[in-house]
Specification:
The complex is a heterodimer. By secondary structure, chain A is an alpha/beta fold. Chain A is built from 15 helices and 25 strands. By secondary structure, chain B is an alpha/beta fold. Chain B is 20% helix and 39% strand. In chain B, the strands form two sheets. Chain B has a four-stranded mixed β-sheet with strand order 3-2-5-4. Chain B has a three-stranded mixed β-sheet with strand order 1-6-7. Chain B starts with a strand and ends with a strand. Classes of the chains: A alpha/beta, B alpha/beta. Chains A and B meet through helix 7, helix 8 and helix 11 of A and helix 2, strand 6 and strand 7 of B.
């Protein structure tokens, strides 16, 4: 089934011609009155305009947030949890239109936004509503009459900078715990994908007190920097890349505030020889695990972009995996049969092509793909890339750098120790995959890999309640788990004596 | 480390607008694996950052660990139309700096 284009007859998705910032519970024009064109990667053409904000708009949002923080921070957990549950309900009622918008703005297939992005985001709000209701402080008995109470308190006003690969879901990963913990938020969406969260704010904005949630759009240098550097935020959360991650830590150091960072990876996906022992369901599952590098067009921080295959099965496995990969070709993201959509932007497309180029120049063997695909039917200028498999060695740049496209680099390994050595020979440590019929091998590999998330006999599952975050240069903090609440809270200790007798020092 | 004419034109334009510039090569996801352009001094260099050269009068740096993995390639700074780039200065202009590479003998 093919969905009609936005703003055409029969479409549930109708964009306005222009979107403002969401500040203090209403949509307000940017101070300088400037807007930028928002392109759809599906067609490469603009479809709406979005506020191009500056430091004045960030200050306005911070004013609103600071005005709201005292009251919001003192609402009961029940009240806050109920707000999150209502947000989830409204998202569920509007799932299809939000899913369509994510596809149109980011280029990802509607199949994925309907089945993953939106259901996961909805569940995330519900999960943090539950975490909040179940959260307790602690009481320590230092001695019979001296008690240490530990209370969780909100940080106050926090800044959040959101990436473009899962625009609404990544915003949710950050918003749900921040709001649950009683914080007010100033959020800057990615300038590549600002649309859906503005549609979302129109739907759910009224559920939150004015000023609790503020969304300011614009470019990193013009709006992101004045937010990240601002002395009026108590924490900054960022998902993106390492240089900006360092810059954000540098800004945070000026204010001595905490940061959480998710900066990507170069995730190994390890296939031990026994995956081919039988021609059964598990073999098919492992081949599907290989093909996961194509999910979201490879624009996932945990893209399994390095496949490490036991040399004893290398040829047979790669033959099967190539055949599986070649069944997938890019198509219209609004067609429910499409499994591979458009890359999010022209510069992303160009970067992927530049990495395919260096892969070839370094002597990697191009097994399939390796080129831009021009689709017809009005999609000629969209940003589509054929799924690409390279074979090479782990010190090649295509094995060491995140390409963020549907490109996997494959190499063989010789025994368990070699697999682990190759897997860990990377600057990053966000995700990894391990595939084996032997639970012992899989367990030991999972424990040896220096990465925050090791999918074992599965890949690319992102349920709430499984912690997600990086080792090494992949970042700081753990999202999608109740422990993220801690990243948005202060701990208040009241150390109380119930003993009437003097302490005896002076 | 070299730059295309188009990149040099943009460096000159951004220098006129913002003053002296610097580049730092990013790694990681989203806008990563691409160079970031800042006002010189904006990004605090660390002891292990390596200067690869200079493009249009702007020094170009990379983290030391990353340099170890890149040092067998010559880098050419180019520019393409684009949208969004962390805090890089060119993004509001609708362009994005990009690295192209050639294998070299070290």
């Amino acid at each position: 089934m093919k969905y009609p284009r936005p703003n055409t007859a029969g479409s549930k998705l109708n964009y306005e011609s222009r979107y403002d910032n969401f500040i203090g519970g209403e949509f307000v024009r940017p101070a300088k009155g400037q807007y930028f064109e928002n392109l759809s990667p599906v067609t490469g053409r603009p479809f709406t305009e979005v506020a191009r904000s500056t430091a004045e708009d960030i200050e306005k949002a911070l004013d609103a947030a600071h005005g709201a923080k005292a009251a919001w921070g003192k609402t009961s957990p029940t009240e806050r949890a109920n707000v999150l549950l209502k947000i989830a309900d409204v998202m569920e009622q509007n799932l299809e239109v939000l899913a369509l918008s994510e596809s149109w703005d980011n280029g990802k297939p509607i199949r994925e936004t309907l089945a993953a992005d939106l259901p996961l985001a909805i569940d995330h709000f519900r999960y943090f509503a539950g975490c909040l209701r179940a959260e307790e402080g602690t009481v320590g008995e230092i001695d019979h009459d001296t008690i240490a109470y530990h209370f969780k308190e909100p940080l106050g006003v926090v800044g959040q900078i959101i990436p473009w690969n899962f625009p609404l879901l990544m915003a949710t990963w950050k918003l749900a715990p921040a709001l649950a913990a009683g914080n007010c938020v100033v959020l800057k969406p990615a300038e590549q994908t600002p649309a859906t969260i503005l549609l979302w704010a129109k739907l759910i904005g009224h559920l939150l007190p004015r000023g609790v949630l503020n969304i300011v759009n614009g470019f990193g240098i013009e709006a992101g920097k004045p937010l990240a550097q601002n002395k009026r935020i108590a924490k900054v959360a960022f998902t993106g890349e390492t240089t900006t991650g360092r810059l954000i830590m540098q800004y945070a150091s000026e204010n001595i505030i905490p940061v959480t960072l998710e900066l990507g990876g170069k995730s190994p996906n390890i296939f031990f020889a026994d995956v081919l022992d039988k021609d059964d369901e598990f073999r098919q599952k492992a081949l599907e695990g290989f093909a996961m590098f194509m999910l979201n067009q490879g624009e996932v921080c945990t893209c399994p972009s390095r496949a490490l295959v036991d040399k004893r099965i290398y040829n047979q496995f790669l033959e099967l995996a190539t055949e599986r990969t070649q069944r997938v070709q890019p198509g219209d993201p609004f067609d429910t049969d499409t499994k591979l959509g458009a890359q999010a932007s022209n510069d992303q497309l160009e970067k992927i092509l530049s990495y395919i180029d260096i892969g070839k120049k370094e002597g990697a063997k191009l097994r399939t793909g390796g080129e831009r695909v021009r689709l017809g039917g009005g999609l000629e200028d969209g940003y589509y890339v054929a799924p690409t498999i390279f074979e090479g060695t782990n010190r090649m740049r295509i094995f060491q750098e995140e390409i963020f496209g549907p490109v996997v680099s494959v190499t063989g390994f010789d025994g368990f120790a070699d697999a682990i050595a190759i897997a860990n020979d990377t600057l990053y440590g966000l995700g990894a995959g391990v595939w084996s019929r032997d639970g012992g091998i899989a367990y030991r590999a999972g424990r040896e890999i220096q990465a925050g998330r090791v999918w074992t006999n599965c890949y690319h599952l992102y349920p709430a309640h499984a912690a997600f975050g990086g080792y090494k240069q992949s970042g700081l903090g753990r999202e999608t788990h109740k422990m993220m609440l801690d990243h948005y809270q202060q701990t208040k200790n009241l150390l109380v004596s119930y003993d009437p007798k003097p302490m005896g020092f002076f | 480390m070299t730059a295309t004419d188009a990149a040099l034109t943009w460096i000159a334009r951004l220098t006129a607008q913002h003053g002296p510039l610097m580049f730092h090569q990013s790694g990681g996801c989203c806008d990563g694996s691409a160079p970031m352009c800042y006002q010189r001094g904006e990004f605090k260099l660390g002891a292990r950052d390596v200067q690869l050269g200079e493009v249009g009068g702007a020094p170009f740096y990379m983290g030391g660990d990353q340099y170890e993995l890149w040092k067998h390639t010559d880098l050419v700074l180019d520019v393409v139309t684009g949208r969004g780039a962390g805090f890089s200065l060119e993004a509001p202009e609708g362009v994005r700096f990009l690295i192209r590479s050639e294998v070299c003998a070290v």
